[in-house]
Amino acid sequence: MSKPGFYVTTPIYYVTDSPHIGNSYTTIAADALARYKRQCGYDVLFLTGTDEHGLKVQRAAQAEGLAPRELADRVVAAYHDAWKRLEISHDDFIRTTEARHERVVQLIFQRWRDSGDLYPGEYKGWYCVSCESFLKESDEPQPKCPDCGRPTEWNSEASYFFRLSRYQERLLKLYEERPDFVRPAGRMNELRSRVAAGLRDLSATRTTLDWAVPLPFDPAHRAYVWIDALINYVSAVGYSTDEETFRRRWPADVQLIGKDILWFHAAIWPAMLMALGLEPPKGVFAHGWWTHNGEKMSKSKNNFVTPGEVADVYGADALRYFLLRELPFGLDGDFRDSAMLQRYNAELAGDLGNFVFRTLSMMDRYFQGVVPDPGPAQRDGALAEAAASLFQDVDACMAELQFSRALERIWEFVRRANQYVEERKPWSQAKDPAQRAALGATLYHLAEASRILGLLIEPTMPASALAIRQQLGIEEERRTLAEALTWGGLKPGTKIRRGQPLFPKKET
Ligand code: MSP
After folding, report:
1. Distance from Cα 22 to the centre of ligand 1, integer Å
2. Ligand 1 centre and the CA of 401: distance in Å?
3. So what's the architecture of 337-484 in CATH?
4. Where are the alpha helices (DSSP H) in 304-380?
5. Taking CB atoms and a 6 Å cutoff, what residues make up the pocket around ligand 1?
6. What is the pLDDT of residues 437-488, one digit of tens each?
7. How many angstroms is it from 23 CA to the middle of ligand 1?
């Protein structure tokens, strides 16, 4: 039987900024989910990429004396480096300047034109280049963008309009029928009332912009960058070019975004799809925003946290862990340097790293680095019991994209495992030859707990998970997670290879 599919996306990032923890956050969350679903036996497609057209990119390139394409190539290289460094396991990386994408954008505009969803008109209004968005209609001048606070520009030009207003009822019906279309639930109300208040048709093309996809039927017009960008989610999976792939992949299972771009993803995007006779995605999850030591990150304050600088100090796994653990997914949070250090030392170096290192050291010391046989009577025990509901609990958290709760649950187990060491006192058992079998059972259970932890942390900390596996001398896991988590999977007799501590303690 073929594996069930799972399609997860991140927004595609503007090539005006290099990677920072804001966009790394979405990508790391998507990666953790993709890795988890792969562990559970899904055929995953994890898509990310870059948004390369539009005025914002054109002007940023100009300011540096570069062609837009040159700027894009440079920033794309920085994204590839960052994602490699952070062990992002995307299956595809789409650039909106690729022919496979531009072709589909043109085709979609043609389809809308043919179906009457696109019509020519005249656009007048205020535009924010930084957000690449048209401001809401108002009689008052709007010199500042209500979202980002930057100065706006007055636009007056011929434009084709996408008939967004035609989809108001269908959008409201979608929200009604699928209340979890947008998560967290709190974000749905605002969206629904904005749609219920009425939808204006959307200016979908520009004539005053060179760096964008030209329309096939009127090349003086070029695609509005947001419409171009949203199309990436279907162009990457073969819409109108590879029907079989498209049928298998669309609708996406979940689209991860930041809260600032919810309107585009939960109102405009489903309407664009409806106009093509396509299903909306199964769900959109909007996460919160990070500040840094209590301040908004901005270029002028020069306080952007880059993933590279944190990974240099703590390692990529620790950054991934911190971002997913510190904050319930969906809420805003603050990246405090002190909290990063504290969690690293307490939870990674202390709880997890220490447990695995102790276990392997004792196995070396007392059993010459070979996993002992626990003996038939001792296969079960307190740790096996503690591990029994782990999969179910973690799985329930992951279904809700509650990474922080999943990690809390896993850490309950780590703490229980450390407590078990204190209870069994293997160093005392080792002194008494009559307790040799009991010592073997203790160490078997500790090693088995390490194996289980190596599986459970894989989505969040892939490099450390691999290190645990290698140190325990076990092969890559081929069974599904639920099967692999069954207690007793570690074979007695396995030769371990103790390595360095996973997370060396940092000075405060
Ligand atoms: N290009 C558009 C998306 C098009 S998707 C069809 C875009 N790009 S972006 O590079 O500006 O932002 C990408 C993502 O990064 C957004 O989801 C945004 O929410 C996220 N973040 C940017 N700064 C952030 C924080 N400080 N904290 C958390 N996420 C943040 O928008």
Report:
1. 7
2. 18
3. Orthogonal Bundle (1.10)
4. 307-314, 316-326, 337-343, 354-367
5. 11-14, 17, 22-23, 25-26, 51, 229-230, 257-258, 260-261, 289-290, 297
6. 999 999 999 999 999 999 999 999 999 999 999 999 998 888 999 999 999 9
7. 6
Per-residue DSSP letters for 171-228? HHHHHHH-TTSEESTHHHHHHHHHHHT----EE-EESS-SSSPEETTEEEEEE-HHHH
Our mutation pick for probing the ligand 1 site, out of 9, 10, 13, counting the most ligand atoms within 8 A of Cβ, is 13
Question: What does DSSP assign to residue 20?
Answer: -
pLDDT of 507 strictly over 90: no
Please give the structure tokens belonging to residue 72. 């894009």
Give the pTM: 0.96
Q: What stretches of 333-463 adopt beta strand conformation (E)?
A: 333-335
Ligand 1, pocket-test mutation among 8, 10, 23, most atoms within 8 A of CB: 23
Rounding to the nearest 10 degrees, give the CA dihedral for residues 312, 318, 319, 321: 170
Closest atom, ligand 1, to C-alpha of 256 = 17
Q: Rounded to the nearest whole angstrom, what is the distance from the C-alpha of residue 226 to the centroid of ligand 1?
A: 13
Taking the centre of ligand 1 as the mean of its atom positions, its distance from the CA of residue 158, in whole angstroms, is 29
Contacts of residue 211, defined as CB under 8 A and 6 or more positions apart, other chains included, come to: 53, 54, 55, 57, 58, 61, 68
Residue closest by Cα to atom 30 of ligand 1: 22
The C-alpha R_g of the chain, in whole angstroms, comes to 26
The residue written with tokens 């017009």 in the block is: 221
Task: Check if the beta carbon of residue 278 is closer than 8 Å to that of residue 270.
Answer: no
In whole angstroms, give the CA distance from residue 27 to residue 21: 10
Residues 6 or more apart whose CB falls under 8 angstroms from that of 346 comprise none
Report whether the peptide linkage leading into residue 307 is cis, meaning its omega lies within 30 degrees of zero. no
**Per the structure block, which two tokens stand in for 389?**
């509901």
Residue 162: which of 213, 129, 116, 196 has the closest Cα? 116
Does residue 373 contact residue 444 with C-beta atoms inside 8 Å?
Answer: yes
pLDDT single digits (tens) 25-52: 999 999 999 999 999 999 999 999 999 9
Q: Would you say residue 142 has pLDDT above 90?
A: no
- Phi, psi for 46 (deg, rounded to 5): -115, 115
Residue type, 265: H
Q: b/e per residue, 351-382, with b = 16+ CB within 10 A?
A: bbbbbbbbbbebbeebbebebbbbeeebeebe
